[in-house]
Write a structure and sequence with these properties.
By secondary structure, this protein is of the alpha+beta class. Helix content is 13%, strand content 27%. The structure holds the ligand Nc1nc2c(c(=O)[nH]1)N[C@H]1C(S)=C(S)[C@@H](COP(=O)(O)O)O[C@H]1N2 and molybdenum atom.
Length: 424
Amino acid sequence: MSQSNESAQGPSRRRLLKAGLAGTLAGGLVTGRALAAGDPAITDIQDWNRYSGPGVDAQPYGTPSPYEKTVIRRNVPWLTADPVSSVNFTPLHALDGIITPNGLCFERHHAGVAEIDPAAHRLMINGLVETPLVFTMADLARFPRTNRIYFLECAANSGMEWRGAQLNGCQFTHGMVHCVMYTGVPLRAVLAEAGLKPGATWLLAEGADAAAMTRSIPLEKALDDCMIAFAMNGEALRPEQGYPIRLVVPGWEGNMWVKWLRRLELGDQPWQQREETSKYTDLLASGKARRFTWAMEVKSVITSPSPQAPVRHGRGRLVISGLAWTGNGRIAQVDVTIDGGRNWTAARIDGPSLPHALHRFYLEHDWDGSALFLQSRAIDEKGYVQPTKDALRAARGSNSIYHNNGIQTWYVGTDGVVENVEIS
Ligand SMILES: Nc1nc2c(c(=O)[nH]1)N[C@H]1C(S)=C(S)[C@@H](COP(=O)(O)O)O[C@H]1N2
Ligand SMILES: [Mo]
């Protein structure tokens, strides 16, 4: 890895780190400081040490510490006409690991959140089936259950960034993604109960929201790994995420994951006029459109440092961290550059590496305090390499909105302030 300004300050420790300790934490030497006289955090008795705190009846459903009150979903009011048919964004810059807490999962609705009484909700299966069926939520819970961790990414994630750097924070550039553990039943088991008629090749999934949003899904995918989920991260789905049931379509664009699922119709072709498919195509420079681009392609972003998570501690050990994901299986490798792509270093993927799930990566870097052009580049197990934004625009022109999986650049100034930029 190249480092400019190497000789300015403290070169001996950096050499030591490079020689033997690079990539591993060197304990207190790196980030601790010598015991200082007069530090009130040590010498003073704090209130929380003096008085008993709230009892076990204070919060029947727990919430985060008040000191974490800025870790919230945010929307961009000018992006859409009203918040009912809109989107908010996961605060990726403030999270770690691979699981998104339920209350922080981004929301995308076409007609707001349906507030459904599960006792009055049904799932109907009709069309090219032997026996049309209706299930209550209790019926569904009697199928064999399965638990799977998957990311969901809206095809419009990073859509505002096609033409150039726009929004100052990974929450806004990349926050239309979340990753939770779903509990539910395999879609194939529920379809088998109804019995598929010969000729059934497509499935229409319909939601019970005021938009009655529908999507066509090829039967092959439906029978492969789709789920009807009723829980996320161990508790019932949140209303925002489709309570009481939603479709899970692993690795494929979020629009297909129909929430508040109420009907599955089997047919022999996609239902193009009635559904959203046409909105999620990619318009090419030639005027032609890419369609049926369902799997979300290999992508990554550095979540810290990033514009909303600047470097506050000055030079020295800097933990660079981010997320990588692919709709084509697992992530095999993530490379990080600090010099805008001249030199790349393999980051450390830590935590579970699961197909169609977020992967967490870290690179422990010894920052010399000079300006950085930070980027991450993911490679998936099929060998797909995350493209540069220039390469994407060369292939698809600049009229596209959806499916932007280009490499993101953050500029880290000498003051630690981080900005969304593009370099070529
Ligand atoms: N019924 C219904 N399902 C829906 C939508 C909707 O508006 N209505 N939005 C879709 C879109 S475009 C996306 S990206 C995902 C978002 O899922 P989330 O709100 O759980 O993040 O849900 C999909 N499923
Ligand atoms: Mo979406």
